[in-house]
Amino acid sequence: SCVGLRNLLQGLSFCVRYYFRHNHLQTTCLYSKIKPKKCHILDCSGSTCTQMTVPPGSILPWRFFSCKEGTKVPSKRKQNASITSSELSYKNLLKSEQENWNDISARYKAMTKRIKEKLEELHKYTFNSGSPRIRFGENVYFEENGCIFLSKADDADEGNVDILFSTEDLGFSDAFIQRIRISPDQRYMAISLKSENSEEATCIIVKLGHFPVVEKVIPNVFSFEWATNDVLYYTSQKNLKCQNVFMTTFSNQKHTKLVYTEQDARFFVDIYCTKDRHFLTINSNSKTTSEVWLVDCRHPFKLPALVQARTKGIIYHIEHRNDELYILTTYGEPAEYKLMKAPVASSGMENWQLVYALEEKTKLVDLEMFSDHCIMFLKNAGHLYLSVISFVSHSVQSIKLPTWACEFELESHPEHTTGTCYFQLTSPVHPPKHFAYSFKENNLIEQAVQEVPIITNCHTTRLLAKSKDETLVPITVFHNMNSKELHRKPLLVHVYGAYGIDLNMSFKEEKLMLIEEGWILAYCHVRGGGELGLSWHKDGCQHNKLKGLHDLKACIMLLHELGFSQPKYTALAAASAGGVLAGALCNTNPELIRAMVLQAPFVDVLNTMMKTHLPLTIEEQEEWGNPLADEKCMKYIKSYCPYQNIKTQCYPSVFITAYENDQRIPLTGILQYVQKLRKAALDHASRTSKKGNRIPNIILDIQTNGSHCDSSWEDSLNEVCSLYCTHPQQVG
């Protein structure tokens, strides 16, 4: 059993990857209209964007770069403040936790080295397999390892590429590339660079050509789009909020001006350019309501025009085709997404006409508009498929995608007249594969890519667990087909269940490694998430939050009943808001699991939602409720809040990773949770005298680098190796 426990605890880290507790997650639009906004490009660079000044006119010889005079990368000035006694106590506690973790992790250097080497080998084969491409006619822009490259679409010679941008050569080696936007005439490129220690990004505008030149640096930017060849719109971000839209020009008459300001603190603003580039949309979204303003790209200096005034409970997003607005909206019954249309000149809700409605319990993942077609990327019962709407024949065709696929990601191809839609498919144990759908040929093509030497004997099983109210809850299970006696194999259960967001099921090297070593991976798609549409989220938020807890319990019990592992070999994994359900289950049914791993967990819902001075509290009320204004809400939150319900009992072992610079989940709440949990576990051990009674190991790893949403490959690798180093006798 010691070996089994060692195997169990070796996977404690492989659970948690970036389920963001975003203030705009429900309705971000419209590069990715429904799902949380994915970056075009994510690289593996380091930690922090340091201040630098590039010498005027300097040329970096082998990258062919120059910077205009005065170009600087902004940095935040450290605030000098007197240290209070509470701050001193906090710092002492922080230091104590860091020393405790350093002592534990130092004992297992040999194991760390072995795991690191194995993960690095997998990473070497899979790193380049999933970089999305930005297609502009014959040109293809892509990013690898902090550099942006330009190649020709039909060029088979991989070495025949131009380097357009390098984070390292311009002194940004500690930042990663988050987003790329190319101007319509391809003369300018806007890039956002982000430090892992900050939520804010810096936008770099580069004038392309034989000698690319940095034209402008804009700090604290969230989203940006080119309205014309030399007019850029962008949103500014401050304290996790985006409420201002600016316009800046790069013609002879350079100027910047404020275009739009959102007054309601519950709303988050981003911008998007319609596929045909006729309009730039200013999208103001809360978690349940949205409003869109249009900027005519032919007249970018005119005031934005309102499409439809915000109406409580109605979300809508805009695309454009042939002088008509295509509106993706929750308007009408049932309150799921529908595609509607209206004339540009009379865009009010009274003129919206239905084009296509989704089937029941179907999740709309994304939508892409073309000149004669529209493609919807959908999920139904765990399977992915396309719905292709023809505006010429007025027909709808459904195309089922490979059964192993769990996630889509669109590749950007800005020309709406193209006859092909490019995208990637992936799963936790399948590296991204490139696919193309041809409208003319009406077929799906798997594009040839470099072979990745990975296992192919991973079996995918989809189950339905019956919850307390008899609602059927989907589970996706992965295991090695060669594994025998599954009831003796370690099981890693994943959960999230908030904000209408699906569990992250994109490829991770560590997931593949677990499968190779005999692990079972289970993903519980509980209510509160978005896997079965908007109603699935609504049925698990505010006064329905306990339904998600009941769903999770039912899922784990079903897995054990069907012979997938057993409680003493089961670990539960969650991140961010997923920590609410994981922490609640740890309080109500600790006997179902042996270990729990949390990353930047939200574990003190009640106290957080009582503090209106925190940047996200007001807008988060649509997800959790308002305990200050509603006593019933306060009691309900208190009934499931992980911190409030810790009691003297036998707990599973717990490993928590937290971040000093996390602006979304205050570190003080996590520290208090850990202290209270340790005391409860020790009190239980001291009151019971059973032979072999175990004391759970409750460990907190506080990362000085990284923020809530981001970490680099190197930091992720180190974290994986560190979490591998928990000894079974300590935790067991």
Key traits:
732 residues, alpha+beta, nine-stranded mixed sheet, 39 strands, 20% helix, disordered N terminus, EC 3.4.21.-, hydrolase, serine protease, Pept_S9A_N, serine-type endopeptidase activity
Overview of the structural elements:
By secondary structure, the protein is an alpha+beta fold. The chain is 20% helix and 33% strand. Strands 2, 3, 9, 10, 11, 12, 13, 14 and 15 form a 9-stranded mixed beta sheet that branches. An 8-stranded mixed beta sheet has the order 32-33-35-34-36-37-38-39, with helices on both faces. A hairpin with a 2-residue loop joins strand 5 and strand 6. The model is unreliable at 1-82, 712-716 and 725-732 (pLDDT under 50). Residues 94-443 form the Peptidase S9A N-terminal domain.
The biggest sheet amounts to:
9 strands, mixed
Percent of residues in helical segments? Answer: 10-25%
Radius of gyration: 25 Å
Tally of individual helices: 13
Instruction: Give the terminus-to-terminus CA distance.
Output: 10 Å
How confident is the prediction overall: mean pLDDT?
A: 81
Q: Please state roughly what percent of the residues sit in beta strands, choosing from under 5%, 5-15%, 15-25%, 25-35%, 35-45% or over 45%.
A: 25-35%
- What is the 3D form? globular
Helix/strand/pairing category = alpha+beta
Spans of 5+ residues with little confidence (pLDDT < 50)? 1-82, 712-716, 725-732
Keywords: Cytoplasm, Hydrolase, Protease, Serine protease
GO molecular function, one term: serine-type endopeptidase activity
InterPro entries: AB_hydrolase_fold (IPR029058), Pept_S9A_N (IPR023302), Peptidase_S9_cat (IPR001375), Peptidase_S9A (IPR002470), Serine_Peptidase_S9A (IPR051543)
EC number: 3.4.21.-
